[in-house]
Amino acid sequence: MVVCGLACWRCRWLLPLLLGLAIIMGIIALAGRGWLESESAPYVQQASLWESCTRGEEDLNWSCESLMDYGWGRAAAATYLVGFVILVICFALAVIAFSIEILRFNFVRGIGGLLFVVAAFQIIGLVIYPVKFTEDIPLTGDNMFSWAYGFGWASTVVVIGCAFFFCCLPNWEDEVLGNIKPMGYYSSPERAPYLN
């Protein structure tokens, strides 16, 4: 017998787990110094969400300037940070929602709506940063948007996916709560004579 149904009561912790993963990736993006880096040696430029650092080819010390001196730097940091804070709130709400025996599905759909707001804030920050950075900061050599910036986008993609699942979850309310019996598929000799 094959049991169908991906949405099950035992799997209810998968969505909060994915939100936790998005939070971890968001922390890496917020703290990482790899938003922009030199593509090849000599490594003379690196930047985070908060500051841009350069050094000479022979110099070992980095000279850094704060991106918070620019209006776009404050806007990029603020929008990404606001999205991150709302993401943490959504994670806490999801843990509470899935801990309750009688799951409130309108509440779950509200979390999905909030996650779309999170995605909007994060996308705004992730788009402002590279556009304005390349316009206002003089770049030295070949540079690339690197791993920490990628973690920011990865967090956003996970948030968008979770938002769709949270919004669609009430459509499978009976399956998630275990109110219906899972469908089983049997093959019998009468129905499949070609198997004999």
What attributes characterize this protein structure?
elongated; five-stranded antiparallel sheet; single chain; P53_induced; 5 helices; apoptosis; 11% strand; disordered N terminus; Butyryl-CoA Dehydrogenase, subunit A, domain 3; p53 apoptosis effector related to PMP-22; 7 strands; two-stranded antiparallel ribbon; 196 residues; alpha+beta
Low-confidence stretches: 1-7
Tally the helices: 5
Taking the sheet with the most strands, its summary is: 5 strands, antiparallel
**Oligomer type:** single chain
What's the level 1 CATH class?
Mainly Alpha
Would you list the SSEs in sequence order as H and E?
EHEEEEHHEHHE
Q: Strand pairing plus helix content: what structural class?
A: alpha+beta
Beta-strand residue percentage: 5-15%
Work out the number of β strands.
7
Can you describe this structure?
It contains five helices and seven strands. It has 196 residues and is α+β, with helices and mostly antiparallel strands. Helix 1 runs antiparallel to helix 4, helix 2 packs antiparallel against helix 3 and helix 3 runs antiparallel to helix 4. The chain is elongated and about 75 Å long. One of its GO terms (biological process) is cell-cell adhesion.
